[in-house]
Design goal:
Elements lengths: L39 H25 L3 H4 L4 E7 L4 E4 L9 H18 L5 E4 L11 E10 L2 E11 L28 E5 L2 E2 L1 H8 L5 H29 L1 H23 L5 E10 L8 E11 L2 E5 L14 H16 L8 H4 L2 E3 L22 H18 L3 H4 L13 E7 L2 E7 L32 H7 L2 E8 L16 E7 L4 E6 L22 E5 L3 H6 L13 E2 L9 E4 L3 E6 L13 H9 L5 H8 L12 H18 L16 E5 L2 E6 L2 E6 L5 E4 L9 E6 L18 E7 L6 E8 L8 E3 L1
Parallel strand pairs: 10-11
Antiparallel strand pairs: 1-2, 1-5, 3-4, 3-6, 4-5, 6-7, 8-9, 8-28, 9-10, 12-13, 12-16, 14-15, 15-20, 16-19, 17-18, 17-20, 21-22, 22-23, 23-24, 25-26, 26-27
Length: 760
């Protein structure tokens, strides 16, 4: 691509990256005065009042919107920003929207302040991924708040609309080869002028949708919620004065920045990276693609890049806005959750230096629309792995902040068709039930939701059956085995089966069926569950229902199995077709052979898995009555398993020494530690006390390496015949003394990986 002579990151050809100093028309007067001498009581009153303005903003959205994805999933986010677009407060909703509104506001300031201008009573609408939205259904409505003739601050919201056009109902267009088949992307346009909705702009936006009535009501909800927030802020200004309210806003930013900088000071300088693989770039593709992320910490600042990510292709891309939002959502959830949404100061300490033209920082006209189900979650998971590695090297207080990586896709099913002669689109977001990955100190939470959308909930089956023409046969806990195993076990997901009801059929526009797991457990934990989608055609389900039986197993039904791909084309289903899909369980943390036997016994007693899985996966021997662990037999079984690993593993590239008996070891995570070895800070294995080289090198060079097909990890990872998963491998990095896992990765055969942790 040829570089232009003007700005490269302008939000047109490439994603928008604002310069530190914005170019704003001089005719737009900004309120930049801020009181520095505010008494503590006034400060706290105004601070909490601003926080409550944002809370009320979110509650107004939730009450006025009509789309289930907004009402239930809380797929929206309100915010307050300074006059220059810098984030002050964010709500407890989708966290990767953290920068979407801020970027959009800054783009408006730079590109709309002169023509058509920014005036009191205005609002601007945008769903352009190259400006700030993660994908086109995520629509920003931003309102400038004026005090007199001066722009004082902004209130804004972003929410996922049910359908904004494109080739697929629901606007997740997996078949889009580029943006010209995606839903239309509108750069910021003025939707409200002087307090009055502009009918021509509103109709232009609604005309693209298959559900214009729903989208219309949700758009008016967004406009109304902005109006409520504006009124509350102006009431604060009238009571306390503009300079005082602005002083509190800037102080909140400065305080959050100081808090985050202090926490960074407890992390050693270093470099942490991770790579995640995904399957399929579109309906006809079974390729494997890599996303890579590296974080470098120097002093009290973080630099982030995506070098090593594959070039943009198909419909699995995201722009700069999505990449930045994904990383910052994980960073704040891990290190700044106690700031209650006051994350703007944290953002000041992060610089993202992306490589353009890649899957995670695409150039126009790459297709973006499926990002909300796939690529955004992939990047959240990737960021979670990197941040967890970084925090594992920190002080003990910060180590406890580490969280396990999220599922690498938002497992959901979008169906649609006609209901009583009217079109409907049904985004089944039951995956809000979730299944959180394990952490360094605890099991993941079964059905624990998602850390990146803390307020989200799943709909009740009965509620969904009232909304849409479908019948749910079952929704139950997903049984686990090797998937999610670890010293700490990943939280469990669910499995659900559905069929059309009261209508002869419908279409399924969005689904996912993985043939290998993308979610790798940190520090030797097992991968999370593979997402499964199964479709039984021409079944005898109606006959069974008529006979009084509610089928609980698709395998027992008559009919034919549909062959599906990971991200396949639209499927048309009839009245006797039944589909089943999973909301995947989280990944484990640490080697499963290090799990406390009593914890395994507890899992068996609570029916997470049976005693045969306990033996196969954890080498824990439990009696037939499930009353007790056979301690001696378990120790012997684990010793055999570890010995087998070392016999089958390739020896280390570099020979390791044994740490001195009196050397003190600081735990990093799992079996990895740090110690002084002959005056050099070095990685070591905790149980075997093997020295794994200097901390600024690659500890995996000192590990025995056991690489096997991922299917060898357990039947839970068996793909459908003929799928690419058969070729994927699990590479375990073992302590050369004990055989315990220190780390692991899912790789393609012969693939080399850079060091995941280096301290400098």
């Amino acid at each position: 691509m040829t570089e232009s002579s003007g700005p490269v990151w302008d939000g047109r050809v490439r994603g928008y990256i604002p310069n530190p100093s914005l170019t704003i028309a001089p005719t737009l007067k900004l309120h930049e005065r801020a009181s520095r001498d505010i008494d503590p009581i006034t400060f706290e009153v105004v601070r909490y009042a601003l926080l409550n303005v944002n809370v009320e903003h979110g509650q107004t959205l939730q009450r006025l919107c009509v789309s289930p994805i907004t009402m239930l999933t809380r797929d929206f986010q309100p915010s307050i920003a300074l006059h220059n677009g810098e984030l002050v407060y964010l709500g407890p909703y989708i966290q990767y929207f953290s920068t979407a509104q801020s970027l959009t506001i800054k783009w408006i300031l730079e590109n709309r302040s002169e023509n058509p201008g920014i005036e009191p009573g205005d609002m601007f609408l945008s769903n352009d991924p190259y400006v700030g939205s993660p994908h086109q259904p995520d629509v920003v409505v931003a309102a400038p708040v004026f005090v007199g003739a001066e722009l004082f601050c902004w209130v804004a919201n972003i929410l996922n609309h049910a359908d904004v056009g494109g080739t697929s109902m629901g606007s997740f267009c997996m078949d889009a080869p580029d943006m010209f088949s995606d839903p239309p992307a509108l750069p910021p346009v003025r939707i409200v002028k002087g307090g009055r909705v502009q009918a021509d702009v509103e109709e232009l936006f609604l005309r693209q949708s298959r559900l214009p009535d729903n989208v219309h009501l949700d758009l008016r909800a967004a406009i109304s919620a902005n109006s409520v927030a504006t009124e509350r802020i102006l009431a604060l200004v009238e009571r306390y004065g503009a300079d005082v309210v602005k002083g509190v806003m800037t102080a909140v930013l400065d305080s959050s920045e100081r808090t985050f900088a202090d926490r960074l000071s407890h992390i050693p300088d270093g470099e942490w990276s991770h790579r995640i693989l995904t399957e399929g770039s579109g309906p006809e593709d079974d390729g494997v693609y890599a996303y890579h992320l590296t974080v470098r910490k120097r002093g009290e600042h973080l630099w982030v890049d995506n070098a090593g990510t594959d070039p943009q292709t198909g419909a699995i891309n995201v722009t700069y806005a999505g990449l930045l939002g994904a990383f910052l959502c994980v960073l704040t959830a891990s290190m700044a959750a106690d700031l209650a949404g006051a994350y703007g100061g944290v953002h000041r300490r992060v610089t993202l230096k992306p490589v353009p033209g890649t899957l995670s920082c695409a150039d126009f006209p790459a297709a973006i629309s499926p990002a909300g189900a796939y690529t955004m979650e992939t990047l959240i998971s990737l960021s979670g792995s990197v941040v967890a590695k970084m925090l594992s090297c920190a002080s003990p207080e910060l180590q406890r902040m580490a969280i396990g990586p999220a599922n690498p896709a938002f497992y959901a099913v979008i169906t649609g068709g006609e209901q009583a002669g009217r079109p409907f689109i049904a985004p089944d977001v039951t995956n809000m039930i979730g299944g959180l990955s394990a952490t360094p100190h605890a099991d993941g939470v079964d059905f624990g939701g998602h850390f990146w959308i803390p307020e989200g909930i799943a709909g009740n089956v009965e509620e969904l059956e009232q909304l849409w023409p479908m019948l749910f046969l079952y929704r139950r806990a997903l049984p686990v085995g090797a998937d999610g195993a670890g010293e700490y076990r990943g939280g469990r997901g669910f499995v659900q089966a559905t069929l059309p009801w009261s209508e002869p059929g419908m279409a399924i526009a969005l689904y996912i069926d993985e043939s290998f797991p993308s979610l790798v457990g940190p520090f030797g934990g097992n991968p999370g569950t593979m997402a499964r989608f199964r479709l039984r055609r021409g079944s005898d389900v109606l006959d069974r229902l008529a006979a009084g039986e509610v089928p609980q197993n698709l395998q027992a039904l008559d009919g034919d199995w549909e062959s599906v791909r990971s991200k396949g084309p639209m499927l048309y289903v009839g009245s006797t077709d039944v589909w089943e899909w999973t909301g995947a369980s989280g990944a484990g943390w640490g080697d499963p052979l290090q799990r406390e036997p009593d914890a395994v016994l507890r899992d068996v007693r609570t029916k997470a898995f049976d005693r045969h899985v306990a033996r196969r996966v954890y080498s824990v021997i439990i009696d037939a009555e499930e009353r007790a662990v056979d301690i001696e037999a378990t120790a012997a079984a684990r010793a055999r398993a570890l010995g087998k690993r070392l016999r089958e593993a390739a020896p280390p590239v570099l020979a390791s020494e044994v740490l001195a008996p009196d050397a003190q070891v600081r735990i990093v995570a799992g079996e990895l530690g740090l110690a002084d070895h002959h005056g050099t800070l070095s990685f070591v294995s905790l149980t075997g006390r093997a020295v794994l080289g200097p901390a600024d090198g690659d500890f995996t060079s000192y590990c025995a390496i056991l690489e096997r097909p991922i299917t060898d990890q357990g039947t839970e990872f068996l793909p459908t015949e003929g799928r690419i998963g058969k070729e994927m491998r699990y590479r375990a990095y073992l302590c050369p003394v004990t055989g315990l896992r220190i780390d692991g990765a899912i790789v393609r055969a012969g693939e080399e990986l850079p060091p995941g942790i280096r301290l400098t």
